[in-house]
Amino acid sequence: MIPELHFRTKVVISSHAPWSEFYVTPHYVAMLLGRRARVLFIEPPIRWHPGSPGFSARRCLQVLAPNVRQVAPNIWALRPGCLPLGRIRCVKKLNAILIARQVLRALRLHDAIDPLLWLCDTENALVLRGALPTAPCVFHAIDYQVSEKDANAAVQLALTSDVVIASSREILASLPVDRQPSYVLPNAWLPWEEPAPAGPPPELQDLPKPYAGLIGTIGGTLDFDLLKDLAKSFQGSLVLIGEPSRGLPPSDARSLGALFKMPNVHHLGRKPTVALRQYIAAFLVCLAPYKQNMRVYSSSPLKVYQYLSFGKPVVSTPVAQLEDLEPLIYVARDRASFVRTVCEIVTRPENPEIIRKRQQFAAANTWEARWATLVDIFQTEPTLKVLAA
After folding, report:
1. Which one of 196, 249, 290, 367 has the minimum C-beta count within 10 Å?
2. pLDDT tens across 338-350, in order?
3. How is domain 11-188+367-387 classified at the architecture level of CATH?
4. 3-state DSSP call for residue 106?
5. What is the distance between the alpha carbons of residues 157 and 155, in angstroms, rounded to a whole number?
6. Any idea what DSSP says for residue 366?
């Protein structure tokens, strides 16, 4: 049974990532919307199959049971229960029905009629849109474009939503938005509540300096071969903070495995968002080594704002939003220049004026600043008037 919540949900948000100590865009949006409404945050279901570690009939029953809990002021998270073997087509369809029923039941039990849908992923979003076809709907197109399937789902969601918000101009241009209002809302960052502790984290203290690092999901958008080239030339420690994505293509999985085996590459796993500040402060240069394709080029890398908040030099492969930031960051147009730029940065002092401008840019691009933009949208769009008060 879904536990009693004693609230009337007004906004239902779908997310590609569970609620945890490592936040991504849907979490920040939920926290902003929680200022004006009760929010039900729909996590991706846990997907199990007989090959999963710890698979058992008892565990399957636990995974099948829905779980609702309060995670922040005015925000409750629902982890939908689902059946194992979800990759099989018929099971996947059945799971979609189960997820929809669990969401509807949570809304119905707590008299949360006529919710506003705020869809930030593609898979659960399609399920929710099908379950609540008449609900007012915002499709928030963040960096969803990782496969042709996701891009097709995004087009479908754009066509059936009342308002479309995209994290970049390029993503918005890829969507059919001729008949509904559309806006660009770039990603942002949440300022740290306290300064970073002095000195590098304990995990870095025994590693050779200087440190070049990146934070975030270690997934299919990163160019692992480029990182291997960098590791061969870099005279220091290459530090990777984040959890590897599941289901990487075999070629990417092999390349990532080879990268982790390199002697000066140190994968330290996922860290809570609050802990990242000490690692970024210790990095002499921060990395944004993305694959070169149109989907990545259209993205809005959230982590770069966190790097710039410390005034750190960032070396990136071409991404449209990052190209706009030159000369605050370094955009390398080919593999050789990426490696060369990183290796050169650690040998020379940074210009104090550039450091100050990076920090100013980060300070102007917080989620608090994005909230002001959202309030303007709420006041403009009839669909969102419920959030304008």
Report:
1. 249
2. 999 999 999 999 9
3. 3-Layer(aba) Sandwich (3.40)
4. helix
5. 5
6. B
